[in-house]
Amino acid sequence: xTNGTQGGPEILENLKMELRRGCLxxxxxxQLRTEQYGYTLRKALADDGLAIDEGTLYPLLxxxxxxxxxxxxxxxxxxxxxxxxxxxxxxQQILTQLLEEWQNINTSLxxxxxxx
Amino acid sequence: xxxASIISSTSSTRSRNPMDLxxxxxxxxxxxxxxxxxxxxxxxxxxxxxxxxxxxxxxxxRSLNDAEVDDILKxxxxxxxxxNRYLPQRSLIGPVLxxxxxxxxxxxxxxxxxxxxxxxxxxxxxxSSYRAEHTSAGWLGAIGxxxxxxxxxxxxxxxxxxxxxxALEHAQAKSRFLEDWNPRKLPPVRNPNQIPxxxxxxxxxxxxxxxxxxxxxxxDVMSTRVLLDRPEIRIVLSPVWRYFFWAFLVLALINTVVxxxxxxxxxxxxLRASFRLATDAAGSGLFCxxxxxxxxxxxxxxxxxxxxxxxxxxxxxxxMTRVFPVVLATGLVIAVVxxxxxxxxxxxxxxxxxxAVSAAVV
Lengths: 116, 362
Hints:
The structure holds two protein chains of two kinds. Chain A contains four helices and three strands; from the N terminus they run H-E-H-H-E-E-H. Chain A is α+β, with helices and mostly antiparallel strands. In chain A, a hairpin with a 2-residue loop joins strand 2 and strand 3. Chain B is elongated, with a radius of gyration of 35 Å. By secondary structure, chain B is mainly alpha-helical. Helices cover 71% and strands 5% of the residues of chain B. The interface between A and B is medium-sized, with 15 and 18 residues.
């Protein structure tokens, strides 16, 4: 609800979630420049301060793979089958463009904040 | 490899019963997944859960008990929700059509379902024959049978609207017909406190024409009360028509004057909106009275027997009585609209869109 019935902390949480949503995709793509499986990817993101829950990460990985930005393969490691993800060449291109966009947004925001 | 074998093979690396909590959880998630992706998703989910459990066990230096596995699964979420996150976003009626769907549902409720209840209440209150017919099994039985009839009507009406919108959604998904629109075809900015001049002109003309016709036709009728006097049929109105004649005439004149004022100053004021409520209430009251007043005194004819003539007279009067609840319900709806108008004007809600300020002229 947005008609004034929502508490301040709840509004902040929702806005933070919206802000993080786009960033998470960039973070996942960047993290997968090195091949990883889901669990270690999640740990790595959390260690770098971008915690993401499994319910969001795995569907996101599948979506990015469907879009051709990631490639994956099942391999056995520590006696268990694990699915390893890595950035595809198309993903690499997109990541470069997204990082450029990210820099542009950052520059614009800094400019706006300095003007204010 | 079947889903069951994935589940049991993933759990075989742990010294757990194949039917333990984890397997049951994976099976429950798998149930909601499409067959094509089920195996893959379950295998990955299973691996992730085992990794989490392994890490926790390494941290504690012992195997997890059922309660601890239970906590991990609860943290993951309800199986149907977990599965749903893997599925594409689906909706019977999408965000483009949904507001229109809600609007149509409201209209159906407002102009069909609510009036149905009002008419039923009116019939039960004012029509003794209807009441007698429907309360043979007592009042509770009458309410129960009306409720079940209304419920069926509501389900049918709302279900039909929903099915139509689901079909529209399918068509919209294929042709994207709603994305092709023209801003120039949008309706003009509307000020709810403005009285359309076209409406006022129509009101003036209609009321004037009615007044002239009423005087022309009814002034002669009023002296004799004979509405029709032909060899084959003669219709005599009841004496109460004298009051109707003057009341409708005065009402038509007042409405003409008010419509004329509205034409000259086309904004509602509290005074004029209240006046409209009073005239509408008077009109509704007159019509209600007319329905109940046995308007025909007698019908006679050369080829109609006295008994048959009496039967027709009573049938006409009774028919009008039966229409009474509908007239009352209509009057109430009009009164509600009028009261809302008064409140809106009194609260002085200004309409300001893009610099086009249209404030009520009080």
